[in-house]
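Q: Please design a sequence for this.
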């Protein structure tokens, strides 16, 4: 049996309490303050991270972990509250790890997210650039069209907890009977599914825990990963795009802001004057198909062959004839394109980890006129941006979108052109 790791008691003992003033929010949504400690021949400022504490607040905290250059602490008491602090809508806020900002007024959430993007672009990309005000979600609550609650191995004699990970843990599940950021249709179905799972668990129907999928498409909720679902995107007067995909596939989970988001990407791509558009992480065709009318030809490239099949079907069902979709090998993703890079704009929307070096090298070799970089993690986006700047590109616009109200997450669209 392995020994439990010994607690590092420098500079604070386990559960040591003290007061501090919160200076800022990190891009992980954590309050950050500094306290004076003795170090060497002089006192120095030590960083303390406190979840759910807000900038400007005076708080009492309890330390639970010391790292090499900062400590983590729980919020014990708010001594002087921020004027922007509000009552959370969800009774589980602070225990459930899904939301970080329900205690912060929505306009202030948008303000801080803008500031965090500006700090990341300066510190990680070495660039001072004006970040546009964050475009907020029409629905601050009840917007999420997909959730994935999970539950652990049922214990005999105990009701199984079905929900999301407890704040600050990797395995402990908080029971969530209702999710305030999910759509009402999902919450109604969640009640039914929770009852079915508990009934089956009570008779030994689960040997292990599992994850439940609930996806809402126009008020119809499915729980089966292989079900085909369809989203409708109103793009303008008399123009609606219908996109189908598998329930388990990646698709943006806030349909209420998605039309404005897709239109912005299209308009930024069109602005460079390129004749052709390449959607390099096209999935089921979101950006390629919403942009098709603005270009002579568009091409989507995707490593997932099943996504390419859906993208082709979506083009046909929407009467779009100038779009082609290719299942591209990751090592030669632009090899089959018939366009020259100088005539193209490329839209990229990579996974949270950002673009890998192989992809970026291929993109720079293709040398498109412009790139519209969409990201759900501005930190990895700014890391990649350094490569674009070194390759002779410049930034012309930075526009965040709040697809994830009440959480630390957001989408950021950066427009990059050949200098």
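A: Design:
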């Amino acid at each position: 049996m392995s020994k439990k790791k010994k607690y590092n008691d420098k500079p604070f003992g386990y559960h040591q309490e003290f007061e501090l003033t919160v200076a800022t929010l990190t891009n992980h949504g954590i309050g950050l303050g500094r306290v004076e400690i003795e170090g060497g021949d002089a006192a120095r400022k030590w960083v303390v991270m406190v979840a759910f504490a807000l900038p400007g607040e005076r708080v009492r905290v309890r330390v639970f972990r010391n790292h090499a250059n900062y400590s983590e602490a729980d919020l014990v008491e708010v001594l002087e509250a921020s004027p922007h602090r509000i009552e959370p809508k969800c009774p589980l806020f602070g225990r459930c790890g899904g939301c970080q900002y329900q205690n912060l007024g929505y306009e202030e959430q948008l303000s801080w997210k803008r500031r965090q993007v500006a700090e990341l672009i300066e510190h990680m990309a070495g660039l001072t650039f004006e970040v546009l005000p964050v475009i907020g979600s029409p629905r601050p609550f009840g917007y999420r069209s997909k959730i994935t609650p999970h539950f652990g191995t049922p214990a005999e004699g105990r009701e199984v907890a079905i929900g999301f990970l407890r704040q600050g843990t990797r395995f402990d599940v908080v029971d969530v009977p209702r999710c305030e950021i999910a759509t009402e249709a999902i919450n109604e179905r969640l009640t039914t599914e929770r009852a079915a799972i508990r009934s089956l668990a009570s008779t030994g129907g689960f040997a292990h825990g599992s994850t439940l999928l609930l996806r809402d498409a126009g008020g119809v909720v499915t729980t089966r990963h292989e079900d085909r679902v369809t989203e409708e995107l109103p793009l303008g007067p008399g123009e609606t795009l219908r996109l189908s995909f598998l329930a388990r596939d990646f698709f943006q989970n806030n349909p209420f802001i998605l039309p404005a988001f897709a239109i912005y990407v299209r308009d930024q791509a069109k602005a460079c004057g390129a004749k052709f558009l390449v959607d390099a992480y096209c999935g089921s065709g979101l950006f390629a198909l919403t942009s098709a009318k603005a270009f002579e030809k568009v091409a989507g490239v995707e490593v997932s062959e099943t996504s390419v099949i859906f993208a082709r079907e979506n083009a046909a069902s929407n009467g779009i004839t100038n779009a082609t979709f290719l299942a591209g090998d990751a090592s030669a993703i632009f090899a089959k394109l018939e366009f020259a890079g100088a005539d193209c704009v490329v839209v990229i929307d990579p996974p949270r980890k950002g673009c890998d070096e192989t992809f970026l090298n291929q993109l720079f070799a293709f040398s498109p006129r412009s790139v519209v970089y969409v990201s759900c993690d501005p930190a990895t986006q700014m890391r990649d941006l350094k490569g674009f700047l070194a390759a002779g590109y410049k930034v012309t616009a930075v526009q965040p979108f709040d697809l994830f109200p009440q959480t630390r997450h957001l989408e950021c669209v950066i427009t990059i052109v050949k200098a």
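Q: Thanks. Anything notable?
A: The first helix runs from residue 106 to 125. The chain has seven helices and 21 strands.
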